[in-house]
Amino acid sequence: MDERVLFDEAPVALLVVGADGHITRCNRALLTLTGRAEPELLGAPFEALFLPEHADAARAWRVAAHAAPVTEPLEVACRAGEGEPSWVRLTASADRDALVVWLVEREAASAAATRRELGQRLGERVKELTALHGVARLLLGGGGHLDQTLDAVVALLPPAMQFPALATAAVRCGARLHASAGHRATPWMLSADFACADGTAGRIEVAYQEERGFLPEEQAVLDSTAEMLRGELERRSAEARLLQAHERFDLALDTAQMGVWEWDVEHDQVRWSHQLSRMCGLDHDAGGMGAQRALVHPDDRDRLFERLRRAADGADDLQHLEFRFARPGGGWRSMLASARIVREPPARATRIIAALLDVSERRALEDGLRQAQKVEALGQVASGVAHDFNNLFAVLLSGSELLLGGMRPDDPRYELVKDMRTASESAHGLATQLLAFSRKAAYSPAAVDVSALVHKLRPLLVRIAQHQVELRLEVAPGAGMVWADPAQVEQVVLNLFVNARDASREGGVVTISTAALDGPAASRWGARPEPHVVLAVEDCGPGLAPGIRERIFEPFFTTKEPGKGTGLGLAVVASVARHWQGHVQVDSEPGRGCCFRVLLPRLPD
């Protein structure tokens, strides 16, 4: 399409004015606007198109448009044949010596202005919606620290305003203040307040740093942002409370040595809480019930799973159910379970949730208490018997001493009476050990230098060794003093040495040593974390066989041949150590001997 056709068919009235001010060309839209024929317009003066009162202004505008490349538009009334004049806006562009003039009716100009205004307002709405969308995406993401989130909200607000270059923003949230650079209070401000359920209050504000006005929609942006921020703060607060509740719940479970076990009956899927997984050393996802059976003690297995089946069928409950569960390293853990069964109509079990409590330590304490009660009863019996025996042995010993004093060594009865005295002394020693074990003997506590006491006993220990073992002493002169009965400490040394001598059947070395221990070292050996003196007796015998170590301190338990031991030696050692707030620690490996350490609290220097 050539230039002439474009000119003639243009929807806007067009004309060309020569340098002399006369019309040289016009298009159809101009003929329609003026209601005239083309021959009537061609050659006519430009100002003849307008009302007489506007002719001078039109002439002056034409002259200015010929002279300057850019001329402000002019609104004038145009003649329209027999009809009412039409107000038009004149714009022009120079084309060599000619002037091309556009005549745009006022209604069309208003429509264009309206379109421009609508476009501007639409652009403002797009900016506002973009800001709200950015805030929504930021808050719905839910990540990052609150300070980072508030900084991002501040950055999103100025671009949503009419004059972003002049706008600054700030968010106040409790004690926090986040503001864009240069933000300050001015007379040209918008704000929106918010308050959370937990009492946290805040404000969002936008300020122009020069005099400007705000649109109502901009206030709506702040109101919407404040509401979204309030919702985000309440969500974070609820999450924090929920996390704290979980932490308290986990702490309670950890402290109580409890875990949660859940069985999805419909899908046969078992899951454990991390506490239970840690206690049992197994995965959080525990598989189905089939995998659980192998973890339960064979003696408890049928009873437990029958209870579970009956509970799922609605015929039984699962309160106070105790069973034994496998330990990862071997052995069994005692568990006490109480469960809740989740059912759906018609009474069909869908899930079973159980709280499991590790009662292994409780059961061990109960067993220990029962054993202690037995030992106490035995001690009461033993003390009564020992007192009576001591009275009898006193008669035998004094009588045998009198008889020996009146006999010659070559008397045939001399050896018999001597054996009677030896047997009475042994029986008296046994009664003394019974009294010490039962704690019925009279105590004479004093500050005891354990190292000096061991040195004092050396001659007796050499005689007890009987060339069967070599005695080696490694005592520390400055090991320290303990508060105890010296006679009982001597008895501990003698009992441990006799045991070590008897264990070293093929000879060897028995080492008795003393040393000072600080609190951490004592704690590592099972004593209280305070300074101790340690008395150690180490042999080179065969060591303790598996299963023996747990019973060596039981009264009357012995591994010696019948008639060779009473089973009270180590029981007395443990009883004396406990009485003086001490502890006995044992190291032994089969084939590598055994070392008994008696730890007694050290007196301050």
Tell me what the structure shows.
With 605 residues, the chain is of the alpha+beta class. The chain has four domains: 3-111, 2-Layer Sandwich (Beta-Lactamase); 142-240, no CATH class; 258-358, PAS domain (Beta-Lactamase, 2-Layer Sandwich); 443-605, Heat Shock Protein 90, CATH 3.30.565. The protein has helices at residues 3-9, 28-34, 38-41, 52-67, 106-141, 146-156, 216-256, 274-280, 289-293, 298-312, 360-405, 414-437, 450-465, 486-503, 519-524, 569-579; strands at 13-17, 23-26, 74-78, 86-95, 98-105, 167-173, 176-179, 189-195, 201-208, 258-264, 269-272, 321-326, 332-344, 348-358, 446-449, 470-474, 481-484, 509-517, 532-538, 583-588, 594-601. The strands form five sheets. The protein has a five-stranded antiparallel beta sheet with strand order 2-1-5-4-3. Helix 11 runs antiparallel to helix 12 (414-437), helix 13 packs across helix 14 and helix 14 (486-503) packs antiparallel against helix 16 (569-579). The longest helix has 46 residues, at 360-405.
Structural category is: alpha+beta
* Strand order, sheet with most strands: 2-1-5-4-3
Predict the CATH topology of the largest domain: Heat Shock Protein 90
Note the main sheet: 5 strands, antiparallel
Number of helices: 16
Q: Name the CATH architecture of the largest domain.
A: 2-Layer Sandwich
- Oligomeric grouping of the chains: single chain
Distance between the termini: 118 Å
Instruction: Evaluate the radius of gyration.
Output: 54 Å
The CATH homologous superfamily of the largest domain is termed Histidine kinase-like ATPase, C-terminal domain
Fraction in beta strands? 15-25%
CATH class of the largest domain: Alpha Beta
- Which residues form runs of ≥5 with pLDDT under 50? 108-112
